[in-house]
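Example record

One chain of 258 residues, shown exactly as stored in the release files.
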Amino acid sequence: MPAWLAPLGQPAASRLWAWEQAQSDELLADVFGYHAVQLGWPQLQTLRHNRMPHRWQACAEFEWNENPNDGVESDLWLDSRAWPWPADSLDLVVLPHTLERSTDPHACLREVERVLIPEGQVLITGLNPLSTWGWRQSRGAPQPGPTLTLIGYRRLRDWLRLLGFEVHVSRFGGWTPPMGSERWMRRFGWMESAGERWWPILGGVYLLLATKRVPAGRLLPARTWRKVRSSAAATAPVARSDASSCRPFIEKDAVDTR
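Predicted structure tokens for this chain:
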């Protein structure tokens, strides 16, 4: 379990990892593209079922003083506030609790908008401050490293909307109160189905899948234009000969022929 999840407790942290792994396997398996990046929490393999040819596991600056690998290889290290990729170069970005741990989550989200191609997608997960999990995480003992700043679900939706993203998948999980004993967590397992049905907004963890929309040209409604005939297609009058003037010559020619 990562050190920054220690206040949540081992049973709840294990459920958090299992839920996010299952959701990423389902949502990202068929996302089309060529370049995908996961920034943060390398133990969570969100891109393992994705079929893009180029996939990177990156670690951020807030993990430099930790031991985030835990047997997992990282492809690169970067600053979450300044990404090394050029604009419009990535098809998919995954941020598992990255915004909560970043020193400047606004700058990190702006970098995501910059590096994503039009119609590129971003998957973000975070602890819900309105839930018992968020309350336990914020009231826990301070952990070494940067402070975990929880971001509300609706606030994050507003940030994404301002940057031109369209959220098309929103999910919650984890309604059982975090307890130190696995046995007590199982006893209150009925709260999962009840919470999903009656108070989904109070789930311990939320997930957002959004698409970057870029304004483009729009076809105007059809308009009936006045039709003008082409001069080339117009009929031209033909000179008509007078039949009476031609009759004497015809009769004369007929007499001479006889």
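Notes: DSSP finds eight helices and seven strands in the chain.
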